[in-house]
Amino acid sequence: MVWITVLLSLIADQVSKYIVETNAQFHDIRVIEGFFHITYVKNTGMAWSMLSGQTGLLALISAAAIGFMLYYLLHNKPDRLTSFGLALMIGGAAGNLIDRLFLGYVRDFLNFYIFGYDFPVFNIADSVLCIGVGVLILASFLEERKNGRTDMES
């Protein structure tokens, strides 16, 4: 299940980026005026243009994070929810790492305007990564709650 999640996340990311990048009509579409646009951009940094132009450093950080998560998965055998969260994070990090290594930038295209704020443009890999973090937080909360009950029952 873990490897299928990684693979599906990676495929969804790379295919969506390819479709948007290679079809000019997808470079600026107002899907829901004032809320959601598809806006193709080449991002040499990370969110909010932090570390812009530091492709090598960002690639190194991504590769190290993927390596750490893989090591944790293989050596600690975490529960299913934690494994699922890590798999999403690995798939997302790998999707952006592929872009950085082969293109020198990350392809972003999901552009939301939330309460008038133009949120930074992002992609499927970023979404999957954030969902993975949320799943890890949930898994941690559930584990802590379970252990709390066990400690009180003893």
Defining traits:
16% strand, 154 residues, alpha+beta, 4 helices
Tell me what you see in this structure.
With 154 residues, the chain is of the alpha+beta class. It has one domain. It has four helices and four strands, in the order αββααββα. It has a four-stranded antiparallel beta sheet with strand order 1-2-3-4. Helix 1 packs parallel to helix 3, helix 2 runs antiparallel to helix 3 and helix 3 runs antiparallel to helix 4. The two termini are 34 Å apart.
Could you outline the blueprint of secondary structure elements for this entry?
Elements: H1 2-22, E1 28-32, E2 36-43, H2 55-76, H3 80-103, E3 106-114, E4 117-118, H4 124-153
Antiparallel strand pairs: 1-2, 2-3, 3-4
Helix pairs in contact: 1-3, 2-3, 3-4
Structure, briefly:
With 154 residues, this protein is of the alpha+beta class.
Q: Regions with pLDDT < 50 over 5+ consecutive residues?
A: none
How would a crystallographer describe the biggest sheet?
A: 4 strands, antiparallel
Strand runs, count: 4
Mean pLDDT: 92
Helix content: 55-70%
Topology as H/E string?
HEEHHEEH
In which order are the strands of the major sheet placed? 1-2-3-4
Strand content: 15-25%
Put simply, the count of helices is 4
- SS-based class: alpha+beta
Q: List the domain count as a whole number.
A: 1
Q: Kindly, what is the distance between the CA atoms of the first and last residues, rounded to a whole number of angstroms? A: 34 Å
Radius of gyration: 18 Å
- Tell me the overall shape: globular
